[in-house]
Amino acid sequence: MLLAEGSGFVRMPSMDAWPVGMGRPSLTGPGKGIYNVGVTELPAGHAEVLLQQSTDGVNRLLHRLTDPAMFADPEGCLDRDEQMIAWANVRFGLDAINSVAATWGTSDAIWAAFRALGTLQGLWEGRRQGSVPLWQLLEPQRIRDHALPAFTDPTHHRWAAGLVDNYECELRSGFPGSTSEDAARHMQELRHLVHGVGGQGTRPRNARLATLRHLASHTPNVQLVCDMASLWWTALLFDPERVSRLGRAPWAP
Structural domain of residue 178, as residue ranges? Predict the structure, then answer.
């Protein structure tokens, strides 16, 4: 991440308007204050700490993905299909996160972020747990409880926690009167609308239109979904033993 002098962890909020339909609801809102998290400078040695944490985490993740015991069936035989699915999910998820970085500031970034989150769903879904609804990855408290613990560096943690707080504020602003979980379900419908996939579970027939009405009326800065996807995948790299449990979400027993 490149930082302008004196602007620690600040990205300029810029994204094209809604790409289709009448009215073009904004996805960025006023674009003010969403990256104001109280971090104005980085301590000495900060980059080295994060580099070491990233390198160590990636090595542990690769060890898990190449360990036959991780993919043994009940008879103790290697389930090659499960191993290949896990490899593909990690590969595609990291590719999506790279796409978010490459397209930052364009309308494509948020859709790449949804793709990254959807891939994480696939990593956690399996015979033991079943499906993991996308909204659970978009709910602020779940992010605090299960992604933020991986951010052990104090400055990095404070920055990430501030982003989650700002994301929650935007959800409240964009979907007034909704609970945090209901607002996350609205965001799930935004992804379903653009990607043309069905929703999970029972929901109102006009759920996607309701999301668009909220976006048009309240214009929250939903581009913070990009940062939530980045937080989840960073947590997976930093703490693979807890976050990358194949077929089991971090909050599952």
Answer: 58-243
